[in-house]
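Students often ask what a holo structure prediction actually looks like on paper. The answer is less mysterious than it sounds. You provide the chain, you provide the ligand, and the output is a string of discrete structure tokens encoding the 3D arrangement of the protein together with zinc ion.
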Amino acid sequence: MIKELKKAILDALFPEKAACFSCGREAVTDGDGFCADCRSGLEVFNAAEPPKFVDGYTAAYVYNDVSSRMIKRLKYNNARYLAKPLADALTIPDHWKIDAVLPVPLYYRREMKRGYNQSELITEALCERIGAELNAGLLVRTRNTGQQTRLTEAGRKRNVKDAFAADEGAKGLSILLVDDVRTTGATLSECAKELKKYGADRVYAITVCCAFEQNNR
Ligand SMILES: [Zn+2]
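The corresponding structure tokens follow.
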């Protein structure tokens, strides 16, 4: 009851909720959060090979103009309310048996600067929906890996090498890693490798957007 009331107050205070998730324009969004223009540009993710060390991978959308705008609004424009609809767009395959769910961690200084980790917000909303426990403590980022946008695939691999540290609590678990965007998958690979080093049984990964194109390999 209190939760519902809180939500109603927040909804009234932050009318951006009526704006399109992607372009932010006030528009008729048909309840799905997108204006007609953005909806027609949204591409549903089909399939891509899992990153190395990852046992299964899926995403909600192909990374394109529409979906990238949505991620940028969550990440840089403080549009935290987008975390829930983005989490709702994620479908976990039935055969993935999950013991622990965790976001790809940000370096603590970067998180302090931004005030939040967008992937953690998505993970929180996902955990609430599926009734799973968020176990962010299983993995930390031990150094700042900076922006990867301009790096090549090999450069990204080098950049994230040994940038994460797992915890012994990972032993024997089947873990779901959550992130906002997958580009090459170098970050997810590095996280999965580290978790497996600490005995994780399986590591699956799910991202809101996937920018990886199979035929580029
Ligand atoms: Zn729009």
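The chain has a mean pLDDT of 88.
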